[in-house]
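Bench notes, bay 3.
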Amino acid sequence: MLSTDLADLKAHMADNPGAVIEDVARERKVSPRTVIEALPPSMVRIGAGEHFAAAMQDIAEWGEVTLIVHTDDAIFEFTGAIPTGEIGRGYFNLMQPKGLHGHLRHERCAGVAFVERPFMGKTSAFAAFVNVDGGIMFKIFVGRDETRALRADQLARFRQRADRIAALPAA
């Protein structure tokens, strides 16, 4: 990406921090990771992908959150507790027989981005698991309370995990 294009993208994201990341990436012909990295530095911290399992195990203790998978063809949302998981046979396996379950290719995770930004008139906070191609595997959003405010306990855990992961050097 040319430095002028990057500067333009950073200016766009500073003016529109709530823009849909995947839409901006498609419109600008860049990866979603590039769009996340173009957000104002106060809104994003990124840690290495090797922390995938630790982040997922921590999130499994947060309670009800929303997991979103955004593709060109659909946006899937799951609201509920994320199950615990374990690594086996090349996957991070979500250990639950019903509800959200499955097998995640954790070794393709190149980064975990912790994003706090305005979105649709409200503050949002999410962890984006970014793959080796710069795409977003999925996002997990901090839950909201009965007043639609971010849950304070989860936001504290989100920030603690961001501090841990973003501060750790890559192996």
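Next record in the batch:
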Amino acid sequence: MSRNSRGLYLIPYYLWMVLFVALPVILVAYYSLFDIEGHFTLSNYANFFTPVYLKMTLSSFWYALLITFFSLLVAYPAAYALTRTKHKQLWMLLIILPTWINLLLKAYAFIGIFGTYGPVNSLLQAAGLGEHQILFNDFSFVFVSVYIFIPFMIMPIFNALEDINPTLIAASRDLGASSFVTLRRVIFPLTLSGVRSGCMAVFIPALSLFMLTRLIAGNKVITLGTAIEQHFLVTQDWGMGSTVAVFLILFMAVLMPILGGGKEVRR
């Protein structure tokens, strides 16, 4: 295939990137330069560094870190177990299936599950623990977020585990290493690329969550995504909402090479 023909095949890709990636970012940056009355200003950027927005930024990073940590805590053992089961591809399909369900539907399902008359509270009452308010707090927000993001953490880790050369594990056992030592010194270092990919797939979207903060956390968890939604849909201050979005894009642009970087361990 000639170089010119290869260039022709790349045209749809470049058009897609320009229309649906570059152009929206440019528009967001443009709107961030205007106040609520449509006047050109840089005050939006100055307002972002006030305590209110800095607190939202810290809150966003804190909850994104919690969601990523608990997702990794559950996903790594799950992915490791999957590689040692029969019909592993079928099990992976069952894990991926919930990602095909609309996020709003899953949020409303958890409202029913964690609600006052839901099965969780019914189980607690049957156990003699009484009725508890499970919804509209930090716990429910992190729990539901972890449930939603776990498949995106499991998939890259599972693929990294599948790529490990079995002879390396056998050599570790032959040299007298226990299962735990083999996991810590051989398997985990060889799957760091999958761990980084999973963390990136979870941490970056978790920074901009807004629907779950309203439906599951009852607006008791405030993030940058919540601020963007409020400015665009409630206060109609598109300039400030765009400014928050610009900083969120910058944070993501900085985090992507950090989470996705690093030299892969040679097999």
